[in-house]
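Sharing a chain and its predicted structure for anyone who wants a worked example. Both blocks are below, sequence first, tokens second.
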Amino acid sequence: MVTLAPNPATDQLNDLIVKIDASDMSVFKDLTHDIVKLQPSFSFLMLNHFFSLDPRVLYELTKVYYLVWVYFRKSEKLPSKVLKKEDFSWFIEKNEGMIKYMKKEGQEGANLIHESIIKRIKSISLLKAVLLQFTSNTVFLSHDPTKIEQLFLELLSVIECLDAGGRPSEIPGV
């Protein structure tokens, strides 16, 4: 019998997912107020899809955004400076370029991208939890795959931006 060693990061994320799934609208309202107060551009990204997505997809996507927020907030990894929309956009554009490269280069490109992501993302357990949400949630699985890919890419970029504390040109000493 194989026994897996305890993983505190995975356990923490599992607990957060369960809590967010069980939350009511008052909790979501409090989280939204916290986001708007501390990182308004993060809320812009969340609300950006308000009119373009099926309400079920929007609800599930919002829960994933809350997962990312609560993870960074609870682990005290939230950047102290207020990030701008341009910070998030920089990472989104960079990752869109990587996806185009990966599609052009096939499996070899995919392997390079995967290695690159693993090396630069500090919150890898969070990224894996987000990926699990996108690959196991029937609401996401039944939606347009191209749109879901774009939403995941956006969340990858958000995690990367929060990990880095902004664009490289904005990070002191870089």
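Comments welcome. Residues 85-120 form the longest helix (36 residues).
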